[in-house]
């Protein structure tokens, strides 16, 4: 906590600790950018599929990111490594999200962009679509995610 961080520096000021925490949240949220094509894709998928999210990171930060961006409402289930105390690529994480979605590996498709982490879904029997990492030079015209979703069963 901010209080603890300040006390480790010899400062005992709860008001300052809260101000620091609020400033940190605000600055962190300013980096919560999403690609413009993500929302239309999630809207389309939401009408036809149960959608789960597996993400690595501290649960409070990841939950805040989902809430702040509005993306959390698109997911039927979310598995955050910080809450699970395990993360991708551990097989238990993929089993956890399947359980939350009431799905079998054969009914699921994993879409990811990090082969060392996301590729392990294949070992669980989940069809896996690994996208290339975003190409910064492609700018907003980068449609690979949208195009790749055309591969999903209809």
Summarize the structure.
By secondary structure, this protein is mainly alpha-helical. It contains eight helices and four strands.
How much strand content do the residues show? 5-15%
The major sheet is characterized as: 2 strands, parallel
Euclidean distance between termini CA atoms: 47 Å
| Fraction of residues in H or I helices | 40-55%
Please state the structural category: mainly alpha
With helices defined by DSSP (H or I, 4 residues minimum), what is the helix count? 8
Unreliable segments (pLDDT under 50, ≥5 consecutive)? none
Strand order of the largest sheet: 1-2
Structure overview:
With 154 residues, the protein is mainly alpha-helical. It has eight helices and four strands; from the N terminus they run αααβαβααβαβα. The strands form two sheets. It has a two-stranded parallel sheet. Strands 3-4 form a two-stranded parallel sheet. The longest helix has 16 residues.
